[in-house]
């Protein structure tokens, strides 16, 4: 698949390979393989820790490793015990053994209540519908800056009209986590293309397979899964069985089905409008450059080292998907 036209011209995707597509309801995924990038990068679950929440909108993360830089995943959020749930609106670098306070984080829980027990703590990535609004206010120090958008999302799901994101990611968690088994992370996978129906919804690329493996569940379940779940809340239609009479015919039908799905996604990708991005450098660490890309239909952040792509999280804006 060719997705070069969808990203800033500085991206070189020629070294990436694309695997066989997978599909579950409205959500389709094309695995990306690119090999681990040079240098050492810590992973978001095992190598990035939530230290503390220092009041509304202030979240401190740490990189406890002895070596290796942490690239904080764009729009990571934490559900925690006895403190307000927060999410970050931007990515960042954290050096080995260092801490970083994000004073421009957003509270995703409008008032007290709805906490999870400590044994259930976990991190998520903001639902796709909230990512573009979050990126727009990434430098704004206001803990309530996403409450209005969260309320709109809750209304779309028929839930209480308030800025409580846990109404979806916690109370609907049983359904959302099904995407983790329906759509499989593959050994050595370093990224993925995500499609909703016939439109590209996101491009996610990690510096290492270990990094993407830890990011996989939060992405597929809570970011893109929430967007796919909205119109699947009742029940997915039961697929018709293949009209076959032997194992050989079944294998042939499965192969034909996979080829048809791949062709369909290739055609859908070709229909995606070519993007012109406004690119802005946000932060530097050694030879790493964190940049924000804003286009008409897509936006996100990416990291380069000496013009080589290391990390990327580009997603479709809500108005494009509607």
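-> sequence recovered:
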């Amino acid at each position: 698949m060719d997705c070069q036209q969808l990203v800033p011209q500085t991206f070189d995707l020629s070294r990436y390979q694309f695997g066989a597509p997978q599909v579950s309801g409205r959500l389709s995924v094309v695995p990306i393989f690119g090999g681990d990038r040079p240098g050492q990068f810590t992973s978001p679950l095992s190598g990035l820790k939530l230290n503390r929440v220092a009041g509304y909108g202030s979240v401190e993360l740490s990189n406890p490793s002895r070596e290796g830089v942490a690239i904080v995943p764009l729009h990571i959020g934490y559900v925690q015990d006895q403190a307000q749930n927060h999410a970050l609106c931007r990515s960042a670098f954290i050096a080995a053994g260092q801490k970083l306070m994000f004073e421009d984080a957003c509270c995703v829980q409008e008032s007290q209540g709805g906490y999870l027990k400590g044994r259930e703590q976990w991190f998520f990535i903001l639902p796709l519908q909230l990512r573009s609004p979050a990126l727009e206010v990434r430098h704004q120090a206001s803990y309530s800056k996403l409450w209005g958008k969260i309320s709109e999302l809750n209304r779309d799901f028929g839930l209480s009209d308030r800025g409580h994101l846990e109404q979806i990611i916690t109370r609907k968690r049983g359904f959302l986590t099904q995407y983790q088994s329906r759509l499989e992370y593959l050994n050595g996978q370093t990224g993925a293309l995500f499609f909703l129906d016939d439109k590209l919804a996101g491009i996610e690329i990690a510096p290492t397979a270990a990094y993407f493996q830890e990011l996989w569940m939060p992405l597929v379940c809570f970011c893109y899964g929430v967007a796919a779940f909205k119109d699947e809340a009742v029940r997915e239609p039961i697929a018709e069985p293949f009209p076959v009479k032997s194992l050989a015919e079944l294998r042939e039908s499965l192969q034909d089905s996979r080829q048809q799905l791949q062709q369909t996604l290739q055609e859908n990708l070709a229909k995606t409008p070519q993007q012109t991005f406004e690119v802005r450098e946000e932060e530097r660490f050694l030879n790493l450059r964190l940049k924000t890309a804003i286009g008409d239909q897509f936006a996100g952040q990416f990291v380069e080292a000496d013009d080589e792509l290391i990390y990327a999280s580009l997603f479709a804006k809500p108005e494009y998907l509607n």
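The chain has eight helices and 19 strands.
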